[in-house]
């Protein structure tokens, strides 16, 4: 079956303002498209995602609809800026909401996220891309996602600089290369897991 992906963008900037995180997330989705993957981008800050660790926090919570899109996809990409050396607060909120998946299982006792693959995209004007991706990878793995080899792409500008990723005239070769590798490995692993799910617990 065709593979699908959803990119959750953790920028703090609401639409329609441009976002470097969304730009890199869309580049990941485009690279996945070269491997037959289709998908969509969700800018989390545009939605009323309530704080909490349940699948539905009620009172107009936008997470249940976003969660449905995540669970319907084979691949989840988290695209985040770096703030104070950390993933954005918006990205962390999405991880907190995904914590609820630890209580959701299929008929054979597996988490609903088993068999789904996750990757990460990071941008910023300070050090911390490896630290940020490490935080996200551990959290994603904790809640059931599988992490492929080389599943992160990033761009980090000059420390305390004023240039954003979206300001560049062209994508740096190193970032384009890691994006291509991420897409190739992520699509490959997702196809394998789609054909053969993890064993029941």
TrEMBL record:
It comes from the Bacteria. Residues 7-149 form the NADPH-dependent FMN reductase-like domain. Transmembrane segments: none annotated. This is NAD(P)H-dependent oxidoreductase. It comes from Cellulomonas fulva.
């Amino acid at each position: 079956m065709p593979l699908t992906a959803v990119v959750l963008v953790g920028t703090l900037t609401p639409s329609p303002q441009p976002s470097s995180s969304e730009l890199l997330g869309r580049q990941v989705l485009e690279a996945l498209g070269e491997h037959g993957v289709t998908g969509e981008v969700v800018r989390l800050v545009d939605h009323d995602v309530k704080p909490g660790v349940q699948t539905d926090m009620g009172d107009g919570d936008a997470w249940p609809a976003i969660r449905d899109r995540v669970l319907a996809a084979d691949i989840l990409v988290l695209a985040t800026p770096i703030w104070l050396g950390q993933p954005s607060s918006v990205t962390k909120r999405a991880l907190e909401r995904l914590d609820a998946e630890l209580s959701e299982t299929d008929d054979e006792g597996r988490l609903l996220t088993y068999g789904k693959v996750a990757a990460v995209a990071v941008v910023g004007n300070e050090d911390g891309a490896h630290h940020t991706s490490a935080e996200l990878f551990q959290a994603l793995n904790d809640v059931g996602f599988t992490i492929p080899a080389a599943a992160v792409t990033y761009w980090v500008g000059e420390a305390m600089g004023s240039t954003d990723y979206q300001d560049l005239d062209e994508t740096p070769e190193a970032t384009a290369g890691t994006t291509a590798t991420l897409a190739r490995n992520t699509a490959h692993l997702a196809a394998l897991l789609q054909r053969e799910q993890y064993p029941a617990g």
